[in-house]
Amino acid sequence: MRTLEDIQEEYEFLEGDERYRLLIELGRELDEMPAALKTDATLVRGCSAQVWVYPTTEADKLHFLADSNAAITKGIVALVISAVQDKPAAEVADMDIAGALAPFDLKNQLSSNRTQGVPNMIALVQEHAARIAQG
After folding, report:
1. CATH class held by domain 4-133
2. In the record, which residues are listed under signal peptide (predicted)?
């Protein structure tokens, strides 16, 4: 998975539909999430599309599996995940993820339907991180 900084660098050079294509491409790059993990417990509430996020840990670092049934939403999920992927749980729990995503200006780039679930995605990621950090 690309770093958020790499994605931002590419995103800044693109406009309109090219940005949509980049988001769709990011969604395709997510690790495969097994269907068995797509449950009510991993479902992100408040999204216009179905979104699932599942945390795993490896060597004290968080690794998220995520998926969505909508291509652009899946790209947005990938963007959120790229901000936190493979970082220590305590760091993710305290991180300003919304601030890290601010340069993408998603609210002005995408419809409100597509971005309404972003705060819920961030909250779920940070809840998982806080729980894992506390052991």
Report:
1. alpha beta
2. none
Which of 93, 102, 100, 103 lies closest to 124, judged by CA? Answer: 93
Active site residues: 47
* DSSP 8-state code for residue 112: H
- Cα–Cα distance list, 61 to 17, 85, 99 (Å): 34, 8, 21
The set of residues, in sequence order, having a beta carbon less than 8 Å from that of 71 and lying 6+ positions away, is 24, 27
Residue with token string 């797509």: 38
Segment 44-91, tens digit of pLDDT? 988 888 999 999 988 779 999 999 999 989 999 999 999 999 999 999
For the chain, the structural domain boundaries read 4-133
